[in-house]
Amino acid sequence: MLKKKRNLVALSILLLLTIATITADVWLPVSPGFIDAAQRLLPPSGTFWFGTDHFGRDVFALTVVAARVSLTVGFTVAVLATILGTITGLIAGYYKKADFIIMRVIDGMLAFPSLLLALALVAALGGSVTNIIIALTFSFWPVMTRIVRSAVLQINSVQYIEAAKTSGVSDPVVISKYVLPNVLSPIIVQGTFIFAKAILAEAALSFLGVGVDPSTPTWGNMLQESQIYISIAPWISIFPGLAIVVTVLALNMLGDGLRDSFDPHARKNKKRKQHFVKTKIAS
């Protein structure tokens, strides 16, 4: 996977951002919470790379530190949704009786847009990092369940799994030893996409005013606060917005790279499509 420059660039961006935000307290020259009224709304310069906001805070420092909440929420939601979705997907795909009940619940949840469902849950639970993680996990878990169930149904009739069942091997052993390892590829790929979607959803909730406490630096909170200054100080909105775009794009690129690495058929079909497009353009 790392042989392709695109995948290497995506992984490098994510690693650099993670390391930068974890060690921000060590290397940042200015605290993100430091307020200097005399330096309000200054444009990007050698002193303030991303300029300053309406309180005189360094936008660069805020953008770096704000990544902590966004990455924490995205990663935690991806892990929790993947675990819950994998468990329910394995049960639904393996046991026909449980399949009907689980999938009717999943279909009912998927009838609502994930962001709308998360918005309703956060409004009911209250705005905090923990509640946002719970709401987003509840919103993205059904998608993982459906993908895992679909993958399990495809391999349920494979000969070695049928042989394991008929030889008297218990269901938990069959699921953990034979079924789960063969559905890990779509699980990992979908997990990276949920990571990206959770970052976007957290930013959207914070932008709407129902997310993390406004005093906590997040990319969504920065965008929400900068609305009224966008005409006179657009850099306050541009840089956190770019941070979201770059991070989500890197995660999507990484997910595409993982999918191509795990699924040789998808890679072959992609190459055929590219060849077909090139042939059409040349003709």
UniProtKB/TrEMBL annotation:
Record GO biological process: transmembrane transport
A Pfam family per the record: BPD_transp_1
Cellular compartments annotated: Cell membrane
GO terms for cellular component: plasma membrane
The entry's keywords: Cell membrane, Membrane, Transmembrane, Transmembrane helix, Transport
Boundaries of every ABC transmembrane type-1 domain copy: 67-255
Protein family: Belongs to the binding-protein-dependent transport system permease family.
Record-given protein name: Peptide ABC transporter permease
Taxonomic lineage: Bacteria, Bacillati, Bacillota, Bacilli, Bacillales
